[in-house]
Amino acid sequence: MSRVFRAGWSLIFVLAACAPPVQIVPVTTAPVRPAVRTEAEVTPAAPRVNPYAGIETGRFDSGKMWTFDNPPTAYFGEEYGLDADSAWFARARAAALRFSSYCSASFVSGEGLVMTNHHCARESITEVQEDGENLLKEGFLASTRADERKVKDLYVDKLELIRDVTDEIYAADRKDMPAGARAADRDRRATDLGTKLTREVKAADSTRFVEVVPLYNGARYAAYTFRRYGDVRLVMAPELQLGFFGGDADNFTYPRYNLDMSFFRAYDAAGAPVVPEHFFPWSSAGASVDEAVFVVGNGGSTSRLNTVSQLEYLRDNELPVTVNLLRTRSAVFEQYIAEHPEEVEEFDLENAHFSLQNTLKSLEGQLAGLQSDWLIPRRGAAEEMLKARLAESDSLSKAYRGLFQEITAVQGSKKASIGTAGAFAFFLHPTMGSRILARAMYGYVYTLVRQRGAPPEQRKEIRDEALEIKSFPAGLEKELITLRLQELEKALGKSDASIKRLLAGRTSAEVASAMVDSTVLGDSTAFRKLLDDNYLSSGDATVEPIEVIGPLYFTQSQQLSSFEEREDGLNARLGRARFAVYGHAVAPDATFSPRMSDGVVKGYEVGTTLIPPFTTFFGLYGRYQALGHQKDWALPERWIDRPETMNLDIPLNLVSTNDITGGNSGSPLVNRDLEVVGLIFDSNLEALPNEFVYTDTRARAVSVDSRGIIEALREIYGAAALVEEITRGKSTGTERNAVDG
């Protein structure tokens, strides 16, 4: 199953581990067809007709997110004349960071200074503000090291070692198990191996840990050893108006005028700034048109190894359902925010709405790509090429016979369950769903696992997750619960026994209103007490509805999980087939692990319009003058009253052809000398279909220009000490350099 339907599934694995099973209500869908050998597989067949004959594919359709243990040194030399030896890649790897569990970052000074995006730092910025402060509105700059503010639970990770462990993982494969079960068992072994290796490395250094990362859909496994820095302090952040200039309207667009940056500092266990082995020095000259540039970061996930049948399922079923669900919720948030401005800041509704809109816009772009007349045919042509290569080898042909047909069969089973699956999509998501229903579900599960004698550490994990859920205003809760109940009613039908019990002759809106007005789950303190006592025997207004919804949710989740397990097994076989043919010449899909992506600084054309590769501060002020009366394009006073010495011709943003995806936010953009020339923060709309096929005709990665960062720090924020630290190891050139022409 796609990641969009996985959100909020984690609790099912907890219940599955605790016998006896929960009483569940069956949900009718078509069963997954067992793997059988068809007549076509045991008798010679007529030559296949290639439906995609004549369609061209690209050398890098599968992307350019290269792993550090198999870097494309020959290709870099061929394409860019770059003599990138092992030491070059080692320096790049050592200066790059993962920022918590969701973004990328990098060391940019020899004193532990860390650079990432403002939107990656937004939650941390609000966490460290003191009474009377609004750091998102005002910005922040630490005048001295003593003024830097430690962010609780924030960490950055640096990759130190990679070791291939594929043979260790596959050595214990049981041939008597179905492919899906074998894939799930391999993933469990990978987790266990990571735990074992972590114990070993921590014995020598408590800051190190190991993750075993699946690559090529689990065809390969690598053990990544990281060092974690757990004392991270905020140094500088601009105002939200600059970090997210243009708001959602400008999100995923270009030209852009964003100062989406922030700086932190990592400290060691002794309380001293970290002295990194390597850091990225600053390029004061910046990048030029057609110059080779490289992104070092942690792309989250891509789907470039999917088959045509999997892409068609996403296009025709899963993505339309999900996009519709997000659109309805976005409309609810937008109207509620407009009608209740007094509640926006208290409940952080703007950030919640942005998260929702960001996901929606991304998925709309992916869906548009799948619905285009070129994407699936291009993937189909590549699939036919792979099939032809497999057919050339008797051993490979035999090993992977029937694989594509089996993957297609799973899509049919998933399609049959799409209605109910969609009704539960994002159920436990912190933004997309009701937080009262989420608390009720956690209360339901927590009570059951306590009754079944789950181990203390498991109970604690569930309780901690439950207590992290924050409240939404009552009026918004009524809207969100109404939507969820309406979706369930539509999926199961009015005559369904569970729906009749749930609604009891009332409308969804009436049930939602009564629930919200009577429950104590809207209050975090009351929820904590109820959770620790016994939620299911509490008599709370949510208990009866969740005793209907809970079994439905877990039944559906179990079914989707079974589809996912089977599909994962088939995908692993497909990954092994692809690797047997192409090896490391094809980059693996993104896995939120450190990668390097190559590209060039380059504009593009939209129709007859030429889009330049750079924007400047002139453009920022032009946008403000044209639209500044609207809040998304407003500027803070210090930007309006800018110093006369500020050079408005300095580049602010730039675009390049680098391969990025979610998780790359905060990645440094560096030149061939590994100097910072930019800071990745977004892609354009044309790059959203790159989820499935990497292209560089109009798809672009968007960065803050290194020159714009220095100009803003010096002229607007008066951050002379920070500028001096950043540029201390700078290259030759002039940081006042403007865009030629």
In short:
With about 750 residues, this protein is an alpha+beta fold. About 45% of the residues lie in helices and about 15% in strands.
What do you see in this structure?
By secondary structure, this protein is an alpha+beta fold. Among the domains are: 3-35 and 309-569, no CATH class; 98-277, no CATH class. It contains 27 helices and 20 strands. The strands form three sheets. Strands 2, 3, 4, 5, 6, 7, 8, 9, 10 and 11 form a ten-stranded antiparallel sheet that branches. Helix 11 (308-339) runs parallel beside helix 15 (403-416). The protein is globular. The two termini are 49 Å apart. The model is unreliable at 16-44 and 731-741 (pLDDT under 50).
Structural class: alpha+beta
- By DSSP, the count of extended strands is 20
Number of helices: 27
The largest pleated sheet is described as: 10 strands, antiparallel
Q: What's the overall average pLDDT, rounded?
A: 92
Q: How much helix, percentage-wise, in residues?
A: 40-55%
Distance between termini?
A: 49 Å
Q: What is the beta-strand fraction? A: 5-15%
Rg to the nearest angstrom? 26 Å
- What is the 3D shape? globular
Q: Which regions contain 5 or more consecutive residues with pLDDT less than 50?
A: 16-44, 731-741
